[in-house]
Design goal:
Shape: globular
Helix content: over 70%
Largest sheet: 2 strands, antiparallel
Number of domains: 1
Distance between the termini: 20 Å
Strand content: under 5%
Radius of gyration: 22 Å
Strand order of the largest sheet: 1-2
Number of strands: 2
Length: 363
């Protein structure tokens, strides 16, 4: 709880700062004028595309979990929507932990196995975002001299390159870890090292070394084995191809929902690929800690992205704010409905008294 509160307060500071610098040069009257000119008939199709993308996310998670055991689609869909909903309304991205926790409680899937499948999803998403980002740098000309002030910082083309490099490094590190525990030989070696580590405590009694091995080493080995079960996807070429195709479809629908929303927004005249770039840059920004719903960082990323394409600040601010709400609230509503259908107590799902990961790893 203390860590969650700390994350929340840090998020407030980051988000408030981002909101201030994103909107400080946009008069409120101009922002309201933009919102009043939006053609709201385009919101409906945009929302349908958003929900379709989340439906495909459920199918993808269902496919990944299918490498471990057979599950009904709705037993996967409801936890996924509840998890994303919690990310929108609670701090600390607790929804990423709530999803495997709900599966553990309802389907008896080990928490770490479920968590590993969530991590596998993120690998697919990051890879897709990086692909779009590389495509952006290769096909869209961005003025190398562009310099957008943001508080004491200046956002430039090199800012995007730096962010992209960081995402590549993160992806490679995650992929390396997945490969290590997915290959039987390397996983057995890691397990032997863990179980043999207590012998380094030669200055302690043999009994103490054995207790450390039983209470710490054995539990760590169990967690690694559960993670390996979650990453079993890499051993299934057919499922790997299916998840890759689903990931492409998910992000295509997501980017198209942004584009459709732009069709009803005055002053936002961007191509499909430019709108995809706008979406990717927002995703990079909201990877930082923020308040629930990514308020502030979403707006900062959106205005920065639109500034790259010469969109006026008032139009960029109005569209980004409107699009943020359209992207967010349908997920919250559907997540709440899933919680009602399954009878899930949202608070307990977010902060369980005895988290499954604690049950698997506590000494």
């Amino acid at each position: 709880m203390k860590k969650t509160l700390l994350s929340f307060f840090i998020g407030i500071i980051v988000s408030a700062t981002a909101l201030y610098f994103a909107f400080r040069n946009v008069p409120l009257a101009e922002l309201l004028a933009f919102i009043g000119k939006v053609n709201y008939l385009w919101i409906g199709p945009s929302v349908l595309l958003i929900l379709a993308a989340f439906f495909l996310r459920s199918i993808r998670w269902w496919v990944i979990l299918g490498t471990d055991r057979e599950l009904g689609f709705w037993s996967v869909h409801h936890p996924l929507m509840i998890g994303f909903m919690l990310n929108c309304i609670l701090p600390g991205r607790v929804g990423e932990l709530a999803r495997p926790a709900l599966l553990s409680n309802r389907e008896r899937i080990p928490f770490t196995t479920g968590l590993a499948t969530v991590a596998a999803e993120r690998i697919f998403d990051i890879a897709m975002l990086l692909f779009i980002f590389v495509l952006m740098l290769g096909t869209i000309r961005i003025d190398p001299n562009i310099n957008i002030p943001f508080g004491n910082y200046h956002l430039t083309r090199s800012t995007l390159v730096t962010i992209g490099q960081g995402m590549v490094q993160l992806s490679l590190a995650l992929l390396f870890g997945i490969v290590l525990i997915s290959i039987d030989a390397s996983r057995r070696l890691i397990n032997r090292v863990i179980m043999g580590a207590p012998k380094l405590l030669f200055f302690m009694s043999p009994g103490f070394q054995q207790r450390v091995s039983d209470k710490v080493g054995a539990r760590l080995v169990a967690i690694i084995e559960n993670f390996a079960a979650g990453f079993a996807l890499v051993k299934k070429p057919g499922r790997l191809i299916a998840c890759t195709g689903l990931t492409v479809a998910i992000w295509f629908l997501s980017g198209t929902s942004y584009y459709v929303m732009a069709l009803g927004s005055p002053g936002i005249d961007l191509s499909m690929i430019e709108m995809f770039i706008y979406m990717v840059i927002i995703c990079f920004f909201i990877a930082l800690p923020s308040v629930p719903g990514y308020w502030g960082l979403w707006e900062a990323g959106g205005m920065f992205a639109l500034a790259l394409f010469g969109i006026a600040p008032k139009d960029a601010a109005g569209f980004t704010l409107m699009n943020h709400a359209v992207q967010l609230f349908p997920v919250i509503i559907v997540g709440l409905l899933s919680a009602m259908v399954t009878g899930v107590n949202i608070w307990k799902a977010s902060y369980p008294e005895k988290s499954p990961i604690h049950q698997e790893s506590r000494i």
